[in-house]
Design goal:
2% of the residues lie in helices and 24% in strands.
Length: 278
């Protein structure tokens, strides 16, 4: 549910928050979290290797079960929880044997719902099956790229993948970007979409909330001096005559950065073709 704050302060004037009354208000399960070191964008020598990082609120990393390999054991959703490390919510599962695990909360799944994984699981939102056992045309999320490696695709809030076809040992899926690629039919996927789909409509509202997330300010290159940035200098406000570059002169827009030629054969249609209708 989206809530627009009453503007009693300047920071609330533009703020739009996602409020879910079903979320757990307490702390996470102690044995399912681990320490998250804070590096502030520095390497082991104290040198800045990633700019615009630092500060922010302390966070614990939640251990999420991306493999869903506990087959044929019914699990009950105990509660939904907020996770500061991702845009999606988490669902805490209590299995019949007493074990608890976190999973990405699917859309429509709430406390009390029973889920199961494995080849024999029914086609129901939140259940995880191999792609060879999922009907063609089903909307899925948390898709593996290699069998047994764990979910890598469609894990963010509101994300989903369309299962298009099955040919031999591979299945064809269409990503939100428009890319169509092949994955092995033994790779697992979870039925349905990721929950918290209203996350993209949220408005942060003030600069301080960005700092709480560990993001430091970014200064535009055209606002700097020539000694500090290639876009800097000039009288008044002017656009740079050269292509956009980083402070060290390397191109920052418009050229291909993908170097993983090993998986080129798995891509049937690239995402760039979506914009031109190809």
């Amino acid at each position: 549910m989206l809530v627009k704050s009453r503007p009693v302060t300047p920071g609330q004037r533009q703020q739009v928050r996602v409020v879910n009354p079903d979320l757990h208000k307490g702390r996470p399960v102690p044995h399912l979290v681990e320490h998250k070191p804070r590096k502030g964008g520095r390497n082991m020598h104290g040198e800045i290797t990633m700019r615009h990082q630092g500060g922010g609120h302390k966070q614990l990393y939640r251990k999420v079960d991306f493999k869903r390999d506990k087959d044929a054991i019914t699990a009950t959703v105990e509660r939904l929880e907020y996770d500061p490390n991702r845009s999606a919510f988490l669902a805490l599962l209590l299995y019949a044997d007493g074990e608890r695990r976190y999973i990405i909360a699917p859309k429509g799944v709430s406390a009390g719902v029973q889920l199961v994984s494995g080849p024999e699981a029914p086609i129901k939102a939140g259940n995880t099956l191999p792609l060879k056992n999922i009907p063609v045309g089903t909307t899925v999320h948390c898709v593996e790229m290699l069998p047994g490696k764990g979910a890598q695709l469609a894990r963010a809030a509101g994300a989903s993948v369309q299962f298009l076809a099955r040919e031999g040992d591979y299945a064809q899926i269409r990503l939100r970007s428009g890319e169509i690629r092949k994955v092995h039919i033994n790779c697992r996927a979870t039925i349905g979409e990721v929950g918290n789909e209203e996350h993209s409509l949220e408005s942060i509202g003030k600069a301080g909330r960005v700092r709480w997330r560990g993001i430091r300010p970014t200064v535009r290159g055209v606002a700097q001096n020539p000694v500090d940035h290639p876009h800097g200098g000039g009288e008044g406000k002017k656009s740079s005559a050269r292509d956009p570059v980083s402070p060290w002169g390397t191109l920052s827009k418009g050229y291909k950065t993908r170097k993983n030629k090993r998986t080129d054969a798995m891509i049937i249609r690239r995402r760039q073709l979506k914009a031109i209708g190809g």
